[in-house]
Predict the structure.
Amino acid sequence: MSDEKILIVGAGRMAQAIIKGLKKADFVNILVANNGNHERLSEVERRFCVDATTQWQEHVSDQDIVILAMPPEAHEDVLANLAQVMTDQLVITVAAGVDISYMEERLPDQAAVAWVMPNTAASKGESMTLFAPGTHVTDEQEYFVEKILFSIGKFKKLTEQQVHALTPITGSSPAFVYRMADVLIRKAEDTGVSEVVAKQLVAQMVRGAAEMLTSDLKCPKDLIDDVASPGGVTAAALEVFDKYQFDQMMEEVLVACYDRANNPKSS
């Protein structure tokens, strides 16, 4: 059982995934705040058996860790309010583009901050989370960051710039897999199988491919060659990928993610 007091500002999907992980990891002192959607806050309070408040500023002084789980554009005001009431709390954000430098510039000198970037698989305890600790994070605080992240999946400690560069790959890319899966599921349904069966077929295919990437000593190119015999069915499909410059498209997709994450207010 962990006695650290954790305040989570935000009650959306990622906040709920983190709360679920924290409860599983035996963190017992969890306070959740949400200034906007009171109905959602009440639902989170009931669902996860945690305490809730709409006046989070009044509770900061009694907390060990503050997790900011809200959109990037909400951080400016929240950090300004937090700076007025915090003492020696560890402040963690899960927002894209809101990096260590951004937080340290807006919080008091010597503030301990960490930037973590989970993905939506956190809700299943399967996130691949990136994190970068700030200059003033102690070894003990870093231990608790890692304990929190372990509760929602796997994690890697990186530099601030690496988190910027890799967020599109670990954070946004699940949506690319789901986009592909949606097409495959619909084509499977065209054969007459139900949507449930089609989804099962595609999900297991993706799961198996991921397992091969994880456990096999071969690189992706070798794995592709194992599937695609020269002149065969899969090879013909891969030629269509090349025709439409799939590799270049994916590079442009990642650049678009990176640019938006670092310019969240751009249209």
User: Anything to note?
Assistant: The two ends are 45 Å apart (CA to CA).
